Amino acid sequence: IVAIPVYLYCLHEAITIQDWTWLCLAGLAVVSSLFPIRLFSISDKIWLTVSDIFVFVALFQFGVEVAVVVASLEAISFNIRVGAEPAYRWIFNVAQMILVAFLVGQFFALLQTGLSRPGFLSIGNVLILLLAPWIVGFLYYALSSGLTGLAIAWCSNQSFGIVWVRNLRWCVISVFGSMLAAMTFVIVNSFPW
What 3-state class would DSSP assign to 69? Predict the structure, then answer.
């Protein structure tokens, strides 16, 4: 229920942005989420996509609101692709992406606010500048895998630790790889538009 007003606020803010190139990111996120890779060697329940790259680029380049919209579109298309059923699972997956992207985006915005104060080039600020994307990537991974693990554990009557170790710990590779690629794209402005 909390995800609905968060999404509506972010959608409103995103469509008021003058630079509409973020729609390209949304399109790329949707298309890339339609082609997940199933990691049978690790678990038959794990699907990885490269669509997180576009969520991170949206966050780093356009801000929280655009990242939430891109994440929600990615979640919707991924759920359609893998045929998530029953309906509560579909709703949970989309709501989770909205809330995780929003919370992580707010944290990133707080880090950026701290960097804009006087004495920007102090050692603490430079350290935060270098660590911020990694902290954001870790927080994104921890929240998304944690919420998913709790939901799976609850539905399957298994312990969270067992569910997380069997199914979700390997997702860290995808999330951190996506964050690193997004950071690289933003830094060198290598997108074709």
Answer: helix
Nearest to 135 by CA among 167, 112, 160, 163: 112
How many residues are there in the chain?
193
Cα–Cα distance measured from residue 168 to residue 46, given in angstroms and rounded to the nearest whole number: 7
Distances (CA, A) of 98 to 5, 12, 173, 190: 10, 14, 21, 27
Amino acid at site 189:
N
Structure tokens at 12: 């409103």
7-90-177 Cα angle (round to 5): 75
**Does the pTM exceed 0.90?**
no
Regions of the chain where pLDDT drops below 50: 190-191, 193
d(CA 7, CA 69): 7
SS3 119: coil
193 CB-near residues (< 8 Å, 6+ apart)? 21, 24
